[in-house]
Write a structure and sequence with these properties.
By secondary structure, the protein is mainly α. The protein is about 70% helix and about 0% strand.
Length: about 130
């Protein structure tokens, strides 16, 4: 738990300049805390098959995890995205977050913002965390 708090605090401090809604920023911070272990590592799975299965089942949890894993991977571990183009993966990430928004009957705007701003947000987060001035 102590390590998780340190990671969360680190990401919260680093990303406080991220230009987005406060709920979205807090969610993005939680995404990076979520990947402190391999529970949600989709690097050896087919994102296409996972997304297809989530679509058939209308599975919020899987859509959310796909979006989160692709967002975190796009920012921190782009080498894991080696089987298709970044455009393909960002589209799946955007569609996954939009599916979450839709399944929540469009009541939680953060998923809409994550969908609409997937590329700009991930690029900004990468610049803040990886390409620090």
């Amino acid at each position: 738990m102590y390590t998780h708090q340190n990671l969360t605090t680190y990401f919260a401090n680093e990303l406080e300049v991220l230009e987005c809604d406060e709920d979205t920023r807090a969610y993005i911070v939680s995404v990076f805390g979520k990947f402190r272990d391999a529970t949600f590592d989709y690097s050896k799975q087919s994102i296409t098959l996972l997304y297809s299965d989530a679509t058939i089942k209308q599975d919020f949890f899987t859509f959310q995890n796909i979006g989160d894993w692709l967002f975190a991977s796009y920012v921190m571990w782009p080498a894991h995205l080696n089987n298709a183009s970044h455009e393909y993966y960002s589209t799946i990430g955007r569609l996954s977050y939009y599916s979450c928004y839709r399944l929540l009957q469009r009541r939680w705007r953060l998923y809409e913002e994550l969908s609409d701003q997937f590329i700009p947000l991930s690029n900004e987060v990468r610049d803040i965390l990886i390409h620090k001035p």
